[in-house]
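Structure ticket #2291
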Amino acid sequence: MLTISKPLAPAQAIEYYENEYADPGQSLGTDGVAAEGVWAGRLAESWGLQGAVTDEQFARLCDGLHPLTEARMVRHASPRTYMNFYGERVTSMARRAGYDATFSAPKSVSLVALVGSDARVAVAHREAVSQALIVLEEHVQARMGGNRPAQDTGQLIAARFEHALARPDRASGYAAPQLHTHCLIFNVTVTDGGEMRPIQPLELHRTQRLATAVYRSALGWRLVELGYEVERDPRTNAPEVKGLTREYLEANSPRRAEVLRRAEEVAARLEHMGAAGVRRGAGLLHAAAHADRAAKCFDPARVRERHLELEARFGHQAQRTVESALARGLVVRDEQDAARRALWAVTAVRDEALMCGARVDSRRLLADALRLSLCETTYGAVRMKFEARLESGDLRDVLHAGSPALRERSSAPLGAQTDMARKEARASRSKSVPSSPSVRRTAVEISAMLAEMFARGRVLEVADVDERLRAVVAASRESHEATLVISTSGKERERLNELIRRELGAGAADDAQGRTFGVYAPRGAMDGHARSRADAYIPGENFIRYGRSSRVYGLSAGEYGRVIAADITANTITVVLGGGREVTYNPARLSGAGVYRHVERLFARGDRVQFGVPIRSPRVSRGETGTVTKIDGDTLGLTTDRGHAVTLDAGDIQHLDYGYAVAEASSHSADSRRLIVSLVTEDNHASPAQRKALAALLCREDVALFFTDSIQGLRETFGMEAPERSTSAHVHLTTQLPGETAAALAHPVSPEIASGNDAASAVRANRGIEITF
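Resolution: structure written out below.
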């Protein structure tokens, strides 16, 4: 998979280069390839940089100088000192040297390449990285500064370093085999006019999913050609080589086990300090992985000995798997079959998007098609079928207006499409809107409403997710009892509920007398498009609640099933129901089913909660909110916002969750007139949740603030024309939140916040949040 780091300062990048990137011991076992970097990217080719990376060239690029002439390419920004979220004085970096894009092979692939000594697999990894890096480069944009929109350039320069070892764990010091490639993407690109500009990082992260899918697709295809039997990991969608036991893979992942243990220690410590409901997510794992980690100091001979000792202990699995692949011989792939499979995959994801009325980015559609056809076709074949369908107009009702595929087909620059193209996009968008008069009116009025919000300076751009959540929490302090926080992202909404609960002190006084219940939390990123795909389900973790009965499969409304298997080829899943009965079906053929994961929630008196399913007596609608008033054993007493008293037993509680942040403003939230909305555009363009959230705003007069990750993305999502001057805002937190709230975030703050606007300014104090328009 591909992971992209936060921006590296010049000194930090040079330190990595000297101590890790160029360490010869890191290249153990990769067919003799040294760890010295090689140049990559169209920009490197145009400058005549080929072959090995030199210390001098690397240092110059980190400092924003031309690697050959030493001419200044990018102007340094002035460092800014401010008070961060934790009350500490922080000075921002004067320059971003670049971003570390790391492509990591699946563990089974690393073992057959390094322990099984199959040099062909290392070559396959290298070729897959090259393909993915080309795709990543296609979407590179230049950050133009001022009020100018970002410009597509499709050029980057990167230094590639191939490594073969993971960081050792502290307990055993075992450096496990881990084939991965660091691509240090330098923070410079060149526009069509020859202007040197820094890279727009948002587009890199938006392309991360597609680049990961391209890497995995190319790797899986090549592994099958080499004679390996490959299966798809249901959790990660990565191609895994068959023949290696789970115990052997875990024994070669001690660093991961160490990170998981440390994360649990950190979570336990935070909960002991009073931080309830610490989220066991990527942020906590990132903090645990970077805290007190062991240095990468290796004795190559000893490392190799330990690899072979563990291999012998588990019956030489990697070597036997390689022998089986060699005995099987090279497999000749049928190009016509690959083309048919590519056409099927593109058609399937298009039909699924049409079925749920969602508009997606072209990168997401391509990534979904590649995941659906893993090991059965190539990116080139999928891209060819995608282009053919795009040319025929079949994708017009699926792709959103700002999709890169549509930008490439327009001769106008980004953010300045022709009137004809803009009208066509709006017309096609209106076709996918339901026929309800109120929804039709909303779709027409959305652009005008947002334009007015922009003009009033009530739309605030905060690109960093942590900073955006803190800004939302700080803004919700004022009149919080009459404030409704809306987030269209399920992942963000879960974090906001935890943070606002801790910030307001709700339930804190009674947490000791509270009760922990097991509940079904909706699984994030499972819209109608995803629910119809078998590869979106994780066996053993996902639970399904059927909202409608089915005579064909013998399902009753309200019945639950646990996913135990997923067949990506047949697009079927197998669930086990109550009583042990198993049912296999195509998820695209059943509607009204919700996908959940089982979590624990601590409820106490005073907690704001939301109903995940309707209650018959007294009648409570799905999405309605209320307050916990009583806890008696396995039952909860609540009062809804409409004043109805409700008593829930364990069966009803399992679909209860915190209600401090919700997905939309329901008709039962009329008393919450002040709205604060966090609208994510990065990977969920024009989703039904966004349209519902915006539709609710039209009915309210006292709209407080919009927070979004990208104003440009928001305009692209709803087909709005770019203004003459940007209305982005600079958000600066001036008040430190309580320590428990800060601790619940579990990872450090990024010093960069959204860029400011020099058009006009006014300062509005809002209990700890200072907003400059």
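Closing remark: The two ends are 39 Å apart (CA to CA).
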